[in-house]
C-alpha cells in the first residue's frame, strides 16, 4: 500500500484539519520524502508538543531512521544506491534540520542531539556532496544562536543583583536616576524585549508539563529564561513599591508615585503591557495602597484609567481587547516603534497552563490529541512574532543597570518603611508594626 495512504489511515482529520493520530503516525507525517515536505505550521506544532511524549534527541533519531529507511538507505554502501530515485529527499532532510535548529535551538544544547546531527549531516553530505555548503550554513547559524544564549546567560550571572533586604543603606530618588518617564518606559522596554528574545518556545511546554514529565523534566530542561522573566516582573513590582515607601516626606512620595504612573502610561502607549502591569502591581501592594494621606494628594485619574485597562475582572477582558488592538497595529506596522507588543507575561503563561489542563493530551483510543496542540502552537506562534522585534529606542545603560541591580526591599522591609511613612491607623496595623519592629533590627550605622 502507498506510504501516503498508510500515513493518512493512522491520522484523523476533521474538515481537512488534522485532529489526532498515534505518535508513530505523527512522526511519519513529519518525515520528508523525495516528493513530500511537511507543512511548516504542522512541523512547528509537532516539534513544540512532541517533547511531551518523546525526547528531542530520540525524535531526531526516529526521524532519521524512518526517513533513510523508507528511501532504501539502511546501509552505508553508497555505491549501490540509485541516487536518481532520491529526488529532493536529502535537501528536504537538511531543510528540516535547518527549521528545527532555527526555531528550537535550545534542543541542540544536548550532546546526544548533536551526536544525531553529526550522523545525519555526514550521511546527507555523503549522498549529495553539493549540499555541504547548506549544511555548514545550518550549523553555523545554530552555533551563533547557542553562543548568543551562552553570552546572555553569562552576562545575567555577572549582574550584581543584591537579594531583597529589610533595610536599604541609602534610598535612591528614582526621578534623579532618570528624569523622563518616557525614557524610563523605553529602558524598561529594552529589558523586556531582551529577556523575551531568549525565551525558547519549548519552555512554555516544559513549564506546564514538568509534573507530567517527572524524571524526564530535568533531562529536557536546558534553559530557565522563562522563570527569569517572571522573576524580573516580581522585581519590578517590588522596586516600584520600594521607591514609593522609602521617602519620609509626603511630598516626595507623591512626586515619585505620580512619576511611576507616568512611566506606566508611557509603557501603555509603547505596547509594553508587562512593565505596565508590573508598575500597577507595585503601586497596588497593600503596603503602598495603605498610604491614604499620600494617595489623597496624588493626581490619580491617569492611574485609574490604567487600572481599568488591566482590570482582572471578566478574565482580563479589557486588557485582552487592548492586546488585540496592539496586535492589529503591529501586524501592519512599518515603523519598529509600532511593532512592539510585550504581553502581560504571567497571563500568557496562565492561559497556556489552563489550555494544557483543560484538554487531555491523549484520547481514550490512545491517539495524541493534536487539536489541542494546534491551539497551543497558535498562541506560541503569536509570542514568537512579539519576541523578534528589535527595540528601536536609544539605550541608557545607567538606567538599565539601576533597574536590574539596585537594592529592593523585602515584604517585611516594605511594611516597616510604610509604617514609618504613615503610622498604623488601626489595632491590626499597630500589632503588626510592633511585631515587625521586634523581629527586625536595623544594621548598625556606619561611622
From TrEMBL:
Residues 14-147 form the N-terminal Ras-GEF domain. The keyword Translocase does not apply. Residues 427-437 have a biased composition (Basic and acidic residues). It comes from the Eukaryota. Signal peptide: none annotated. Residues 180-424 form the Ras-GEF domain. The keyword Glycosyltransferase does not apply. GO terms for cellular component: plasma membrane. Keywords: Guanine-nucleotide releasing factor. GO terms for molecular function: guanyl-nucleotide exchange factor activity. One of its GO terms (biological process) is Ras protein signal transduction. Residues 424-447 are annotated as: Disordered. This is Ras-GEF domain-containing family member 1B. It comes from Petrolisthes manimaculis.
